[in-house]
TrEMBL record:
Identification of the protein by name: 3-hydroxyacyl-CoA dehydrogenase NAD-binding domain-containing protein
Record-stated family: In the central section; belongs to the 3-hydroxyacyl-CoA dehydrogenase family.
Organism: Nannocystis bainbridge
Pathway in which this enzyme or protein is active: Lipid metabolism; fatty acid beta-oxidation
Keyword Iron-sulfur found: no
Record-linked SUPFAM superfamilies: 6-phosphogluconate dehydrogenase C-terminal domain-like (SSF48179), ClpP/crotonase (SSF52096), NAD(P)-binding Rossmann-fold domains (SSF51735)
Length: 731
């Protein structure tokens, strides 16, 4: 993994270049073998005379080190195994940090987690200005904290406020922002990285370059970080913010805050010694185990293969030209994400106004990106997007995605028009969220190239791509769409055609169950709060407002037609639409949203609040004398979603519990710390879940009837984990 290149003895200065390149893998990760290799390389360097400095650089085209190999945490049988690995990592990084020679980290591509912790131990850090280069500590997203020295070294380098923000949010830092905050010392072009690193190593060796070891001072830092009272205020506020956002369901952020606060009062070595036992404790806990499992399974999905009828692996073709039909918000969003990844993209709409809005959306997106990436890198991406009122040039597209309004007849007409002008090799996809793909393509001649590509909004942030296949979809079409998912950085799940597919179907049952709870007399606040207390990122009523009540109505009615005995769309929905209550998009939904610039007490922007008038739309609703337990409401909603996910597995809509878990968490926010509906049911025990659903069924009706597969697992004492495919990944 580590290749050592030494300058000849006569070179001045004589430098060593260590190239990091994990064989057979697309990304570099830190595993036990890598720690041993680092020790071996430094032992060699210690015995090499005349060296002036060391450069660490990656041999990968798009990553430095992407993190630690999470298999270490996921497969550890005992807490002590994780702690042993963590302590070994600390020993190796301490050796690097205490090197007598200056060490320069030459960073291009992802430098995350353990990769950034390694870089923090170097004397000097140089990053390229490439869009591929990001720095971050995402461990809290996995239920952990930066346990390789991150919570100790980072605050000492860039300051407490900046460190808390990086560690608690897990967000990526772009090179220019990293330079400004002191995380890196230089930003250079990709082409000049090695030369710049060599030059820096020589200047450091000659004492002509002084490494910065402490954050820049300012008035705010003096008030909040450099005195005990201010520091206490800062950490208390951080705890309150974490508690408000996580409701105590994720322990890692609070552990990280405690370690940072305590570590700043200790000598460096004592502060570092706190990390391994605390890290190991979290790593074997249920939250980290579930989140790490999601990470590994999502990585496995990015590597899935497609085989033809003869069992041969089919290779997907790269997408170089993409045509969007429909310039609405989703169409424009898909266009910018594709263009940013190097795909020539054209948007077609039938009228100048929507097309103009689509192109304006693209421009605004790239303007925002240019502020973080720089105009030089964004210019090419912006130039890849074009617009048209005609289908000119669509005959040369590799892939065309339809994103017109959810009207079956309209979509059928679009595909008939497209098929008449494109060659049989062009893939025709629809971004419908609920209409059956087979019905959309019923009039097509070449049904083998028809597929569903269901994106989630906002496309630039949502990681999932639900790929929907019909019985006629060819292996080549599927393989190419999986390759397209990889090109644009999405995690794909492949599902079979059917009303609502997987994600929309499960979400529809979840949302209608929430409306039924309001009809039964529960308050909107209680329903939303109950879901959040169980771990849903937002409550179902809030989500309905965010998605759009009009969109939710169309989806729910599609599901009600398919499953009339199990889902009912209340008249409330039509009354909302007649009153032009569409949700957040027009400021009128279940909630009242403060206007732009509206300010309340002390100039603070008011929070959204439930509109009391909406209860009038629920005919016959009688408020409960006893409000009920919000957590039970959350439990009921979660079981409704889990039961529908199980039915999708029974029917073959999803291929495995793995796909179902990833689709549920990444697609509509099933509580991440539970690991997805199938892993959640396994943790509770199928038998216990069947018993609980029997109680709820007796009290609340047939919505809680357990699926046949769940009953079978409870009867046989089995669970869903045995049906999962292999997992794998790193972080």
């Amino acid at each position: 993994m580590f290749t050592l290149t030494l300058d000849p003895p006569e070179a001045s200065p004589r430098l060593a270049v260590i190239t990091i390149d994990r064989p057979g893998e697309k990304v570099n990760t830190i595993a036990p073998a890598a720690l041993a290799a680092i020790e071996e390389q430094f032992a060699t360097l210690d015995s090499t005379p005349g060296l002036a400095g060391i450069v660490l650089i990656s041999g990968k085209p798009d990553n430095f080190i992407a993190g630690a190999d999470v298999d270490v945490f996921a497969t550890a049988k005992e807490r002590k195994d994780v702690e042993t690995f963590s302590r070994k990592g600390h020993e190796v990084l301490k050796r690097l940090a205490n090197s007598k020679l200056p060490v320069v980290a030459a960073i291009h591509g992802a430098c995350l987690g353990a990769g950034l912790e390694l870089a923090l131990c170097c004397t000097w850090r140089i990053a390229t200005d490439s869009p591929k280069t990001v720095l971050g500590l995402p461990e809290t997203m996995l239920g952990l904290f930066p346990g390789g020295g991150g919570v100790t070294r980072l605050p000492r380098l860039i300051g407490v406020r900046e460190s808390l923000d990086m560690i608690l949010t897990g967000r990526n830092i772009r090179p220019r922002a990293a330079k400004k905050m002191g995380l890196v010392d230089q930003v250079v072009s990709e082409e000049s990285l090695l030369a710049a690193a060599r030059r820096a190593a020589g200047l450091l060796a000659a004492d002509k370059l002084e490494p910065r070891l402490h954050p820049k001072g300012d008035v705010v830092r003096a008030l909040l970080e450099h005195n005990p009272v201010g520091r206490k205020v800062l950490f208390n506020q951080a705890r309150k913010t974490v508690q408000r956002k996580t409701l105590g369901l994720y322990p890692a952020p609070l552990v990280a805050i405690d370690l940072i606060e305590r570590g700043l009062t200790l000598p460096l070595d004592e502060a570092l010694a706190q990390e391994p036992p605390a890290f190991a404790e979290l790593a074997v806990g249920p939250v980290a185990q579930n989140l790490v499992s999601l990470f590994r399974r999502s990585n496995a999905l990015k590597k899935q293969e497609v085989k033809d009828a003869g069992g041969e692996v089919v290779e997907g073709e790269p997408i170089t030209r993409l045509g969007m039909v429909g310039g609405g918000f989703m169409g424009a969003d898909i266009a910018v994400v594709s263009a940013e990844k190097g795909i020539e993209t054209r948007i077609r709409d039938i009228a100048p106004e929507p097309l103009g809005k689509a192109l304006a959306h693209c421009k605004a997106y790239f303007d925002r990106r240019s502020r973080s990436l720089g105009e030089r890198h964004v210019f090419k991406a912006r130039s890849r997007v074009s617009g048209s009122l005609e289908l000119t040039g669509y005959g040369t597209m590799d892939l065309i995605i339809e994103a017109v309004p959810e009207n079956l007849g309209l979509k059928q007409d679009v595909f008939a028009q497209l098929e008449a002008i494109v060659p049989p090799t062009t893939i025709l996809a629809t971004n419908t969220s609920a209409l059956p793909i087979g019905k959309i393509g019923a009039k097509m001649e070449h049904k083998d190239r028809l597929i569903g590509l269901h994106f989630f909004s906002p496309v630039s942030k949502m990681p999932l791509l639900e790929i929907v296949v019909t019985p006629e979809t060819s292996a080549q079409t599927l393989a190419t769409c999986l390759r397209y998912a990889a090109q644009i950085g999405k995690t794909p799940i492949v599902v079979k055609d059917g009303p609502g597919f997987y994600t929309t179907r499960v979400l529809g049952f979840y949302l209608m169950a929430a409306l039924q709870m309001v009809q039964d007399g529960h308050t909107i606040e209680a329903v939303d709060r109950g879901a959040r207390q169980i771990g849903w990122p937002v409550g179902p009523i809030t989500l309905l407002d965010e998605v759009g009540i009009d969109v939710g109505a169309k989806v729910s009615k599609t599901l009600a037609e398919a499953f009339p005995e199990r889902i009912v769309v209340p008249d409330t929905v039509d009354q909302f639409l007649a009153s032009k209550r569409f949700g957040r998009k027009n400021g009128r939904g279940f909630y009242i949203y403060p206007g732009e610039g509206e300010r309340g007490f002390l100039g603070k922007k008011p929070r959204k609040r439930v509109d009391p008038e909406v209860y009038g739309f629920f005919a016959g609703r009688t408020p409960l004398a006893e409000p009920g337990d919000p957590e039970e409401l959350g439990e009921r909603l979660t079981l409704i979603a889990a039961a529908e996910a199980i039915r999708c597995l029974e029917e073959g809509i999803i291929a495995s519990p793995r796909d179902g878990d990833i689709g549920a968490v990444f697609g509509f926010g099933y509580p991440p710390m539970r690991g997805g509906p199938f892993r959640h049911i396994d943790a509770l025990g199928p038998g216990a879940v069947v018993s609980r659903m029997a109680q709820l069924r007796e009290r609340y009706g047939e919505a809680y009837a357990p699926p046949a597969l769940l009953l079978e697992l409870a009867r046989t004492g089995k669970n869903f984990s045995s049906l999962n495919k292999d997992e794998g990944g790193a972080a």
